[in-house]
Amino acid sequence: MILRRLVLSATWNSKSQPLSASALRLVSSSSDRYTASQRYSGDAKLARLKHKDWLAPNEVLKIFENVKDPSFLMPAYQHYSKRKDYQPTEPLYALLINKFGQAKMFDEIEELMRNVKLEKRCRFSEEFFYNLMRIYGNLAGRINRAIEILFGMPDFGCWPSVKSFNFVLNLLVSAKLFDEIHKIFVSAPRLGVEIDGCCLNILIKGLCESGNLEAALQVLDEFPKQKSRPNVMTFSPLIRGFCNKGKFEEAFKLLERMEKERIEPDTITFNILISGLRKKGRVEEGIELLERMRVKGCQPNPGTYQEVLYGLLDKKRNLEAKEMMSQMISWGMRPSFVSYKKMVLGLCETKSVEEMDWVLRQMVNHGFVPKTGMWWKVLRCVVMRNIDSKADLDRIIDCQETLG
């Protein structure tokens, strides 16, 4: 408070220079810590930390678990660390880190970890560091800090397993930091990590997403060397990569390779191929793949039928598309708003009023509201088809009024 009064007195003087940014941060930090400490001193849940009673580690955990305001935690921990019965344990540190992470108080986590490093009074499990990396990577968005934690684990007498190693690799792939993936991957021996199939799958996914398909294929050949076996998650990114580049011959070769190696392609694998073919206008091949799925006992999902439906609509095959849509609805599936819109506009072009009436009603039943522009096109279609066909026009108007 004395520091704060001195600053206020200085700022009141018009001749004084304005405070620097660093000075303002110092004042703010001092004030915030004082306030937190002051509030903590009157908190009933933390009052036991001021008693002289000996506190067992489990009792301390319960005290900190019951704290609702995370700003109380650091002052309370600092007070506890000065007690004679202070016993730092992994559960206590994990509890504090989780609470700070949920409150996005990452500076407090850094301060706590500095204490951990200085004290060196307890051993930590891999799960502790895994959770810390998860907080830094997923909540804080500090992937570099997560990497530092991974490589710093041996300093605490804890060596990472492939689980922690793969987690960091996944973070890099998700963040599209492809240049860093190889650096981490080749560091596996240094960390004592034995590469497994999951690790190779992550590497293949990263290489495919970066467009380096040739390198990804080379990694595929590493599975036997690592005494591991590829699975469907190995091939799906490769097939997607070749489909995105329009190299369907290579994609289908990979599908054949899967079958030769007795790796059953799943729905996602087929959906990748059907979607890729649809985007290139190869609708018939997509329909053939749909039939192939059924024959092989691989159950299509709504996404499969939706892709085929899009393909039919792109080719203006509206009657086949209507039949596909009807089947989807009968199976409890919900066609997308975009497919309904494409269908209506396509039927407008062919002036198929009766089919359009059915599509509009299904669209409304599924909770989609056609916009004004679509209604005008529908009405124009009806009028142009037969200006004397009042029954058709009334039917469309009734459907619009149903929407309110």
Automatic annotation (TrEMBL):
Keywords: Repeat. PROSITE patterns: PPR. PPR repeats lie at residues 196-230, 231-265, 266-300, 301-335, 336-370. It holds the Pfam family PPR_1. The keyword Lipid metabolism does not apply. InterPro entries: PPR-containing_protein (IPR050667), PPR_rpt (IPR002885), TPR-like_helical_dom_sf (IPR011990). The keyword Cytoplasm does not apply. Belongs to the PPR family. P subfamily. NCBIfam families: PPR (TIGR00756). This is Pentacotripeptide-repeat region of PRORP domain-containing protein. It comes from Eutrema salsugineum (Saltwater cress).
